[in-house]
Amino acid sequence: MIAALTQHAHALEARHGLQVHAELRAEPHLTPDAQAAAYRVAQEALHNVVKHARATQVWLSVHEALGVVTVSVRDDGRGFDPSSQGRGTLGQRSMRERAAGAGGTLDVQSAPGEGTIVTLRLPAAVAASLQREEAHA
């Protein structure tokens, strides 16, 4: 997932002139389904930045701590009022469904003129991380 997101970030810079600040270090411990959901949510959030935000910069990060994998997409765009959209756009509903389907949550924070932050939180795959630790012991 990290390699795919890195490639996606480079493509955004090349195609759309966005400055992407990517903090994509270690591959997170996720099940294959959760990994696919995380990538698709990040991809949709980045698509929304390009399509709606009129942003010049975007920050993309993937972190794992205390059994939780957090994927964050933040932009310096025009923002919007989330309360005026009811349950959100089709893209937001799709991201929420993917998050829930993988056992996670999605949070969208925005305000007019303030940019947007999309945060996906997923449970880390405990069994996978234990297996990797045992393999390295």
Largest sheet: 5 strands, mixed
What is the number of beta strands? 5
The chain-level mean pLDDT equals: 89
The structure class reads: alpha+beta
Give the SSE order as H and E letters: HEHEEHEEH
Number of helices: 4
Tell me, what's the shape? globular
Q: How many angstroms does the end-to-end distance come to?
A: 25 Å
Helix content: 40-55%
Q: Order of strands in the sheet with the most strands?
A: 1-2-3-5-4
The stretches of 5 or more residues where confidence is low (pLDDT under 50) are 128-132
Radius of gyration: 15 Å
Q: What share of residues are in beta strands?
A: 25-35%
List the helices and strands and how they pair.
Elements: H1 2-16, E1 19-24, H2 32-53, E2 57-65, E3 68-75, H3 90-101, E4 105-110, E5 116-123, H4 126-136
Parallel strand pairs: 1-2
Antiparallel strand pairs: 2-3, 3-5, 4-5
Structural overview:
With 137 residues, the chain is of the alpha+beta class. It is 44% helix and 27% strand. The chain has 4 helices and 5 strands; from the N terminus they run αβαββαββα. It has a 5-stranded mixed beta sheet, covered by helices on one side. The protein is globular. Mean pLDDT is 89; it is low at 128-132.
Q: TL;DR?
A:
The protein is an alpha+beta fold and 137 residues long. It has helices at residues 2-16, 32-53, 90-101, 126-136, and strands spanning 19-24, 57-65, 68-75, 105-110, 116-123.
